[in-house]
């Protein structure tokens, strides 16, 4: 072990020293030219996309007077809390990527800025449904980056091996799950993830639930309504009869199951092909995407998991320039094409969805040349809640705790929804929202 | 006791000068943030204006946050879970550390140098990373230690799993503390016992253990304090299993309030309550310990 | 110096008591076996990192757990980690060194000064100060982190190296150990002799007190170094610029990516392995100093 080890380590230490000194001198350089150029604007951008620096470099090359620096302080859910704390200390970034479900909470905390006046041109490149996720009471609080309709990803090899049909309805999905369980007890249709609520909210959206609705300034919270209970009951059945696993997704356990073929389908957003390469690298070319199974045959409605907007913060000293960058990033075809190529987003902008780059399948799904055609066909019928609540973090925490406990102790999924309803409503009342 | 009369005569400003940096840092980074936390615990966020309440402001809450904390049954459960884990980790950590230290000090044991390093090694692994590693070890799909037969995340198993990570991370440090205390004992004191025909075991139990009791007491105090601050291990295991909720131990509740749902006011109130309880308990414990150590120093 | 090797004093082979140990003359089997077991317990997860770090992402979850991959997976993982975001991992490593070295040295110096004063002088408020300092151990970092962040933001020190180092300079354990150590290692009669010779108090501290405390201070430094090296929460709260992350926060961020990127387990595992090595090296190189009794301060 010793000999092959030493050289890279030594090289690494040297590289670190070099990188550090280079980094330090770089830090010194940055303020220099900005000072001399006088009018140059410096903007910071919090984002967790792995290759966002490449897209920002395009902007910086074309705009010598507005320089954007990307930083990745934390992942999506943690970034929200970090932004709120930074706002209290008045040292947040200028620009930040925000998942749709967190945007109302950030508006409520006064963290993000109304950019209606700066984005009149940019918003024309989005359809009304997409824009509704970033527009509240007529004010635009962010430019949508991507949309992620919920779809069914399935292992073509496993489906073929056990003679399963791609299910068009949830009833068929349950039947195929039972067949699979019978033929191959070690392979499960999927797993019920209690750690990340995103897929479950997508499923209840498809079933027609509206967890939050607003009339005037009064909120209605309906997390344990009929549609949600139907979805919960359906999955409770699958978990109880053993055709669906109980362990959380995005864990080493799950990675292994996804890799070794213990899991046959994944209900996920359109971004799944980009993720699968990291989750299950050995399954390249074995997955295909289909529209989400329907509750009634022929209904094309689906839900949404994830998707983000890019926002300008209230603390930014240069809102006009920041909004200019945000508009370019998500509405300009060059920028959007670069994002599709480097970050694998499915664009939110109307013209972005017709980009030539979307003609070829994602790298991980070479077997499905019509992948983006399928996405494009389901995207218009994807529905979200009419609005996300102002305290989604509390709701999501409730989901993880209540469903985790139900799975662990064999409790009822419907009762879990009641618990979430209760904690969400209590928190909103405590904060002073009008809840009807 | 150790105050020679000469010292008092010499009035020097030096001691004040020497404790100044520590006192200043203490005031700035412990007292001030502590006081600030108390202030936050008396406030809350109140929204007004429009659907999203974008005109939200911070208002005085009086003792509302405290009332909520004290009425929260889940907090009590989390304290009980913390105590349950502590009931395992404290005796096991100290017992193993004492055992390893005595073994390392046994004259004819072999591999002591390597063993000493290896036993200390876990201390060099950050808690977050250590928990993740053990998480890999526990999960059925990746477990090299029979996770597909034993449910490490079962209703009771999870306590053992968390306790094991805590013990693993803490044994090394405590072993070194007790071991260094053992090495400091003059070897001559064993000779008489050896001449009497006492076995190594008897020497260890009758001579060594009583003499290193102050070290053991100090280790116990540190371990008790650490177990009251149990956080990293369950918080890192949480996403791997359904067994651990966001309020599994008290500090996870504080963390989730402060860093996930951004309610720093509730988090501050919970913290203040926990700190006061900890202060009272430790004050009592520290008196006992200090009396012991002082007694030994004399 | 290497007291550990000198310690088993020579007069052990005297005619003395033979009855107890006839057969197992050389090695005590049971204690050795128990030690080996203990060492195995401590090494198993670490061994797992070592083996897992040799596997490519594709093999990480698909090959037998305790079977290392021999096709230069480790080199490839290290290369990939070094290439990640323009080598930011090595930047994190350098940052961790900076935080832990600067913080460790300063905290040791501050603890030494305070500990020496508390042990060697009688002054107003001595006892109260000591008790209050010890009570500082009771406040968990999670409680203090956000108030510390908000307070430091008033002076513009968040998201800076100083923001991570300053709150870690006060170390109750360090002061406690230094007090005990100064009491035991610095002989009052030496100080008295110095005073009779007319030496000032400050000079006594520097030339007598500090010098005698050096071995103990190395222990305090080592402990503080590890505490800062392993600290996650404070830098996590304080730092937003990922080029100022220490290793703990950096590796954690690799683990918790958003929806756009899967967790980079192989890189995290390789990074973990590399991050443990410097601490082991430090421990090995300072091990020979590690021979003071942390409780009474006696040195051997």
Spatial strand order of the main sheet of chain A: 2-1-3-14-6
Shape of chain A: globular
List low-pLDDT spans of chain B.
Answer: 1-9
* Secondary-structure class of chain B: mainly alpha
What characterizes the major β-sheet of chain A?
5 strands, mixed
Give the terminus-to-terminus CA distance of chain A. 67 Å
What is the overall pLDDT average of chain B? Answer: 85
**Quaternary structure of the protein:** heterotrimer
What does this structure look like?
The complex is a heterotrimer of chains A (436), B (298) and C (300). Chain A is an alpha/beta fold and 436 residues long. Chain A has 17 helices and 15 strands. The longest helix of chain A is centred in the N-terminal third of the chain and has 28 residues. Chain A is globular, with a radius of gyration of 23 Å. Chain A starts with a helix and ends with a strand. Chain B has 13 helices and two strands, in the order H-H-E-E-H-H-H-H-H-H-H-H-H-H-H. A two-stranded antiparallel ribbon of chain B has the order 1-2. With 300 residues, chain C is mostly helical. Chain C is 65% helix and 0% strand. Chain C contains 14 helices and no strands. In chain C, helix 5 packs across helix 9, helix 5 packs antiparallel against helix 11 and helix 10 packs antiparallel against helix 11. The longest helix of chain C has 33 residues. Chain C is globular. The termini of chain C are close together. The N terminus of chain C is likely disordered. The interface between B and C is large, with 111 and 110 residues.
């Amino acid at each position: 072990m010793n000999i092959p080890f030493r050289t890279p380590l030594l090289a690494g230490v040297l590289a670190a020293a070099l990188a550090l000194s280079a980094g330090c001198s770089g830090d010194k350089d940055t303020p220099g030219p900005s000072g001399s150029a006088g009018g140059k604007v410096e903007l910071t951008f919090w984002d967790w996309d792995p290759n966002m620096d490449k897209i920002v470099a395009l902007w910086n090359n074309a705009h010598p007077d507005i320089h954007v620096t990307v930083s990745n302080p934390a992942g999506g859910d943690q970034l929200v809390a970090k932004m709120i704390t930074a706002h209290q200390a008045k040292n947040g970034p200028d620009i930040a990527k925000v998942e749709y479900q967190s945007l109302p909470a950030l508006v409520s905390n006064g963290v993000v800025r109304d950019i209606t006046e700066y984005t009149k041109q940019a918003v024309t490149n989005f359809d009304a449904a997409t824009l509704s996720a970033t527009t509240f009471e007529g004010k635009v609080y962010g430019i949508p980056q991507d949309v992620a309709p919920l779809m069914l990803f399935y292992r073509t090899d496993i489906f073929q091996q056990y003679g399963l049909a791609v299910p068009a309805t949830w009833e068929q999905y349950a039947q195929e799950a039972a067949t699979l369980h019978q033929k191959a007890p070690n392979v499960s249709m999927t797993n019920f993830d209690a750690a990340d609520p995103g897929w479950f909210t997508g499923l209840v959206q498809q079933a027609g639930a509206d967890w939050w609705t607003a009339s005037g300034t009064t909120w209605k919270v309906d997390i344990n309504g009929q549609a949600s209970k139907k979805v919960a009951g359906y999955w409770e059945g699958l978990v109880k009869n053993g055709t669906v696993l109980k362990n959380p997704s995005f864990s080493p356990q799950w990675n292994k199951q996804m890799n070794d073929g213990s899991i046959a389908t994944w209900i996920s957003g359109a971004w799944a092909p980009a993720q699968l390469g990291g989750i299950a690298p050995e399954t390249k070319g074995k997955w295909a995407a289909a529209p989400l199974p329907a509750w009634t045959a022929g209904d094309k409605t689906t839900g949404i998991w994830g998707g983000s907007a890019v926002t300008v913060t209230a603390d930014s000293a240069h809102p006009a320039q920041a909004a200019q960058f945000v508009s370019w990033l998500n509405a300009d075809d060059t920028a959007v094409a670069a994002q599709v190529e480097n970050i694998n987003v499915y664009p939110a902008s109307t013209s972005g969805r017709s980009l030539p780059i979307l003609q070829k399948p994602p790298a991980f799904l070479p077997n499905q040349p019509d992948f983006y055609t399928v996405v494009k066909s389901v995207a218009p019928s994807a529905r979200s809640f009419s609005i996300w609540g102002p305290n989604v973090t509390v709701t999501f925490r409730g989901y993880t705790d209540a469903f985790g406990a139900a799975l662990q102790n064999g409790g009822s999924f419907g009762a879990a929804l009641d618990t979430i309803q209760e904690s969400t409503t209590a928190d909103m009342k405590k904060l002073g929202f009008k809840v009807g | 006791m150790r105050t020679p009369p000469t010292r008092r005569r010499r009035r020097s400003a030096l001691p004040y000068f020497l404790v100044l940096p520590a006192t200043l840092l203490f005031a700035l980074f412990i007292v001030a943030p502590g006081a600030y936390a108390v202030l936050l615990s008396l406030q809350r966020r109140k929204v007004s204006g429009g659907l999203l309440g974008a005109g939200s402001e911070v208002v005085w809450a009086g003792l509302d946050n405290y009332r909520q904390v004290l009425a929260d049954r889940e907090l009590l459960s989390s304290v009980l879970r913390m105590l349950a884990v502590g009931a395992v980790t404290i005796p096991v950590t100290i017992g193993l550390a004492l055992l390893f230290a005595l073994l390392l000090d046994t004259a004819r044991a072999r591999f002591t140098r390597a063993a000493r390093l290896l036993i200390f090694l876990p201390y060099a692994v950050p808690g977050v990373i250590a928990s993740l590693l053990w998480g890999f070890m526990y999960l059925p799909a990746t477990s090299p230690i029979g996770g597909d037969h034993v449910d490490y995340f079962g209703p009771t198993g999870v306590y053992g799993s968390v306790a094991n990570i805590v013990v693993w991370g803490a044994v090394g440090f405590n072993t070194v503390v007790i071991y260094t205390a053992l090495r400091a004992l003059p070897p001559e004191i064993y000779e008489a016992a050896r001449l009497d025909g006492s076995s190594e075991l008897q020497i260890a139990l009758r001579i060594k253990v009583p003499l290193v009791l102050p070290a053991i007491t100090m280790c116990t105090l540190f371990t008790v304090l650490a177990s009251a601050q149990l956080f990293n291990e369950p918080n890192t295991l949480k996403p791997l299993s359904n067994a651990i909720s966001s309020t599994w131990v008290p500090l996870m509740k504080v963390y989730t309030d402060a860093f996930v749902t951004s309610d720093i006011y509730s988090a501050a109130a919970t913290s203040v309550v926990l700190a006061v309880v900890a202060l009272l308990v430790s004050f009592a414990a520290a008196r006992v310990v200090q009396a012991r150590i002082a007694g030994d120093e004399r | 110096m290497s007291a550990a090797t000198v310690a088993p004093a020579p007069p052990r082979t005297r005619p003395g008591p033979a009855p107890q140990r006839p057969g197992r003359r050389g090695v005590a089997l049971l204690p050795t076996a128990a030690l080996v077991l203990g060492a195995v317990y401590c090494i198993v997860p670490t061994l797992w990192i070592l083996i897992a770090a040799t596997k490519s992402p594709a093999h990480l979850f698909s090959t037998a757990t305790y079977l290392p991959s021999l096709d230069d997976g480790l080199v490839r993982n290290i290369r990939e980690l070094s290439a990640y975001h323009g080598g930011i991992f090595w930047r994190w490593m350098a940052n961790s060194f900076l935080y832990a070295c600067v913080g460790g040295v300063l905290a040791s110096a501050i603890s030494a000064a305070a500990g020496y004063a508390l042990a060697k002088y009688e002054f107003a408020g001595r006892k109260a100060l000591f008790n209050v300092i010890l009570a500082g151990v009771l406040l968990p970092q999670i409680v203090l982190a956000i108030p510390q962040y908000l307070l430091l933001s008033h002076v513009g020190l968040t998201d800076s190296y100083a923001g991570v180092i300053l709150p870690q300079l006060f170390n109750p354990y360090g002061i406690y150990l230094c007090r005990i150590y100064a009491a035991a290692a610095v002989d009052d009669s030496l100080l008295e002799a110095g005073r009779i010779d007319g030496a000032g108090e400050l000079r006594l501290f520097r030339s007598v007190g500090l010098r005698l405390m050096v071995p103990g201070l190395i222990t305090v430094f080592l402990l503080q170094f590890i505490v800062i090296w392993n600290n996650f929460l404070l830098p996590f709260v304080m730092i937003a610029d990922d080029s100022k992350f220490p290793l703990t926060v950096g590796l954690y961020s690799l683990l918790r990516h958003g929806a756009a990127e899967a967790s980079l387990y192989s890189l995290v595992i390789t990074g973990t392995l590399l991050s443990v090595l410097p601490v082991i090296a430090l421990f090995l190189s300072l091990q020979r100093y590690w021979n003071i009794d942390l409780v009474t301060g006696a040195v051997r």
